[in-house]
Design brief:
Strand content: 5-15%
Structural class: alpha+beta
Helix content: 55-70%
Shape: elongated
Strand order of the largest sheet: 7-8-10-9-13-14-12-11
Number of helices: 38
Radius of gyration: 39 Å
Number of strands: 14
Amino acid sequence: MKNIKIEIENLLHENAPDFKIAKLLKEDIKTYFGTLEESFATSGGKDFLFNHTRKIDTFLKLVYKIAIRSMFGDYTPMKNTLPITLVALGSYGREQLCVYSDIDLMIVYKETSGYNSKEMIEKILYILWDAGIKLGHRVHEVDELFEISKTDITIKSSMIESRFIEGSRFLWTEVQNELSRIRHHEQEAYIAAKITEMRELHQKFPMTMEPNLKEGVGGFRNANLVYWIGNILYNVERIKDLPQEIISEKEYKEFRIALEFLFRVRSALHLSTGKKEDRLRLELIPQIATYLAYEDKPEAHMKFAKKVTASLKVIKLYSTIWIDALTDIESPLMVKPDHQDNSFESFLKQLCSVANRPFEVHPTFLQALIHSQKSDILSDEFYNIIRKILSQPHSYSVLQTLLDTQLLGYAIPPLKQIVNLPQFDGYHQYAVGIHSLKAVHYLENINDVTLQAIYSTLKPEEQLLIKTLVLLHDSGKGRKEEHSIVGARLFSSFAEKLNLSSEHIKLGKNIILHHNDMSNTAQREDLHTEQTILKFAAKFPTKLELNLIYLLTYADMNAVGVGVYNEFNRKLLYTLYSQASVAISHGEKLYETSKRLKKERTLQKNALFLTLPRTLKKKILTIPSDLLFIKYTPDKIIEIAQKAKTLENYNYTISNEKFLTIEVIRQDNLDVSYLLHKLARLNIVHMDICKLFSGIKYFKIVFNETVDESELMLIEEVIINALTQTHQLKLTHPNIKKEDIFIDCNHSEEHAIMKLQCADQKGLLSYIINVFDKIGIDICSAKIHTKMNKYLFNKIEQAHSAYFENLIFIANEVCRERQSEVFEEFTELEPI
């Protein structure tokens, strides 16, 4: 700065044009801004802003000197006699100017006939603009200030932060007199307007994962409001200077630490983006954290974001308490503390007593909770109070109060680790603790008629259960283990302390283990396939469980962020709920699906399965045949699927070690009736038919004997003929009685089931398969084995044929007509 002053002095002596001097200033300013990152690393939050403010002061003073020297030359009058004063406003006035924030400058003058003040002001401004200084300015005559301040509360706020920079101190004295008038004018109206303004800003900028550090909840506007109100009421220049009965030293220390941290975050935000930026966007967090000396690791980024949220909450808490102490604005809905007992439990009881209606807590209640007496160990009586709170229709307000006072983790221990935990998933808009409480809010304020009706049918114990589930559904986040598994354990332990029944605890653990399944299924799966519905319903097999997961999903999605729950996914969720409600009535089919899901979970942990391409994994898990999963090992399922994936037309193997075993995977044709007919002399132990994917089926036929090696070539020829041709067979009608056949066309929405138990006889299976082929029934899955000299033809599920797809939409009479046709083909009896 010393060198540039000498250079400017030389230019002034040479009568150099203003733009040449401004160019020199611009280069110096650019050099200065290039040093800011280095100076930021060695200074604190407020110190950095203070030093930057003072540096800008130096530039402005120099520009003022240049302008005056340019105007007067060697006859420059004394500064006090020139009726011009440079005044800093806003954050610049508070000496909290951030790197790329606008420099709010007010130039005050007094019109006198002896000086051309306006021309001098223009010269000052032009030099500043040419020097590249980002300026927000206003120019007023001193006598205008009072009237100007009445036009807008933002202007008034800016003016009461005024700070002298350069110029006439005589004029500054007049400015201060006007500022005093401004401070005392309609104080109550101003305070009320500023509080309203802050509430509107909080609505616009809530405390999300990408907070607005300036105007959002807990941002600098909160702290500024305390300063503005304190300034007009007590004429103090710092919050710290307010009376001790309003701000205690301990409270101010915690507040100041949080504010200091946020100052540093905002400065780093400006430095990293190279512009004025107040929103801490997720993609900027790694870089900002690095500026603040955090390690470049995900866990360090989480720690940083967690501290940001915690600091914002501290600013919000104490500014709320102090603003009330300064203004004492009352509201009939506000609950004040009953100071008869200073224990934390007594305050909780008081909150519980009013939670049967909407309410707000008075800031003095927040302060009372902070300073209340707390036990190290939570008693059974304490948990009984929590149970009563959660049973109230407006428990959200109690929980929010605990969150605001940083006591939620103390009162609800399972939430301790997730209170300020960030979520970097690009989906959730709020930290976990805020999200969890918002979910409770949406549960208590359901605006969907169907869901409201479902909630109203729940018994009180069930309503307590769903409230607890909604509150704790994400409590397991932030650990290495899957958060739903951890959350289920935390819920179980907490629910026991609340004295929930063992049945409800078991049910609740299952809900939390699968709490994302409804939204994932509704939005990612095909809801028009029965397998999708059955898999979902198998996890929530009772009406109560289905109702609870529906309510939880509604609350959870609403709490994610604005617009996440909308009309589109509302319809999807309702469709899934409605179809699952029907599916849970199909007991046997649901039981099979439940067994399949257990095998799927085992399969998904299989080392070989984990190495498969994602597309093949998905194909395997969507195989229609439950039999494949129920009967076969994970390795065998993977082997079959890998062969099917690379299949061109067909693949078969013949094993003749202990028993003759034929395995076939085919794309198009396999004349099973012909194959069985040609091998009718051999006794079958069992046969499996499993529908895979892409129209491919897997067949496995096991006989109770081996054959001579010379016969294997003939068997292979039969298999190839069965795979390459369809044969017209004249088969002998087997002896089947009416009572041997059981057909249920209502086995599920898409599948019918037929069971056959009859005497073992040659050609029986060949005849049965031939009947299915003739009628046009597609076998999705079949399990056939012999027992006690009888055939048990069990669970031949008819799926995806034109008829059975129509069954969903056409009355059951059609099913009965086809049922009669099957009976007629299989028996000698008259049609029924």
